[in-house]
């Protein structure tokens, strides 16, 4: 098989006094994510999609939140390492599509920088990186601003040796 599709989903609780990192970008907001790492829920969902497509388990298997090694770690490092893991199985990211569900903050102005950051880390063209945001019309934990969730889909392509 020359390609594989992976799906990732992640959720983090929001709390005052925490920072909000999304797609490797610090987003100013009155609340941030509560997490063992920097809490970048977008990168975590993307890592899970990549790992799943390559049949390498999930983010917790490779970067457990019980390990001091990953306490407050920059999730961009986790994405870089995930990319190395899929490359070890001769795969590379073909494209990805991500949806962030958050009532606030509005993310439209931050999305181009997120896409650029992720494209650079993965070594792919920015046209292969799609990030979208949606509110939940004040419904659910995202709508009540108790948390933020992200859905990610990724296509991995087999690296063909010539």
From TrEMBL:
The keyword Kinase does not apply. It catalyses: 4-CDP-2-C-methyl-D-erythritol 2-phosphate = 2-C-methyl-D-erythritol 2,4-cyclic diphosphate + CMP. Its cofactor is a divalent metal cation. Pfam families: YgbB. Residues 3-156 form the 2-C-methyl-D-erythritol 2,4-cyclodiphosphate synthase domain. 4-CDP-2-C-methyl-D-erythritol 2-phosphate binds at residues 10-12, 36-37, 58-60, 134-137, 141, 144. It comes from the Bacteria. Keywords: Isoprene biosynthesis, Lyase, Metal-binding. PROSITE patterns: ISPF. A divalent metal cation binds at residues 10, 12, 44. Binds 1 divalent metal cation per subunit. The record marks 36, 135 as: Transition state stabilizer. Its EC number is 4.6.1.12. Pathway: Isoprenoid biosynthesis; isopentenyl diphosphate biosynthesis via DXP pathway; isopentenyl diphosphate from 1-deoxy-D-xylulose 5-phosphate: step 4/6. GO terms for biological process: isopentenyl diphosphate biosynthetic process, methylerythritol 4-phosphate pathway; terpenoid biosynthetic process. GO terms for molecular function: 2-C-methyl-D-erythritol 2,4-cyclodiphosphate synthase activity; metal ion binding. Involved in the biosynthesis of isopentenyl diphosphate (IPP) and dimethylallyl diphosphate (DMAPP), two major building blocks of isoprenoid compounds. Catalyzes the conversion of 4-diphosphocytidyl-2-C-methyl-D-erythritol 2-phosphate (CDP-ME2P) to 2-C-methyl-D-erythritol 2,4-cyclodiphosphate (ME-CPP) with a corresponding release of cytidine 5-monophosphate (CMP). Homotrimer. HAMAP family: IspF (MF_00107). Belongs to the IspF family. This is 2-C-methyl-D-erythritol 2,4-cyclodiphosphate synthase. It comes from Aquipluma nitroreducens. The lineage of its organism: Bacteria, Pseudomonadati, Bacteroidota, Bacteroidia, Marinilabiliales.
């Amino acid at each position: 098989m020359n390609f594989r599709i992976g799906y990732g989903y992640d959720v983090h609780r929001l709390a005052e006094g925490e920072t909000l990192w999304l797609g490797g970008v610090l987003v100013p907001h009155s609340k941030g994510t509560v997490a063992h790492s920097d809490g970048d829920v977008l990168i975590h969902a993307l890592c899970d999609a990549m790992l799943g497509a390559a049949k390498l388990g999930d983010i917790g298997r490779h970067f457990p939140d019980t390990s001091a090694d990953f306490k407050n770690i920059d999730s961009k490092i986790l994405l870089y390492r995930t990319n190395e893991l899929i490359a070890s199985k001769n795969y590379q990211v073909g494209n990805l599509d991500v949806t962030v569900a958050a009532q606030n903050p509005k993310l439209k102005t931050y999305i181009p920088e997120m896409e650029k950051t992720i494209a650079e880390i993965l070594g792919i063209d920015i046209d292969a990186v799609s990030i979208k945001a949606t509110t939940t019309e004040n419904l659910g934990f995202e709508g009540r601003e108790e948390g933020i969730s992200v859905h990610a889909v990724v296509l991995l392509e087999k690296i063909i040796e010539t």
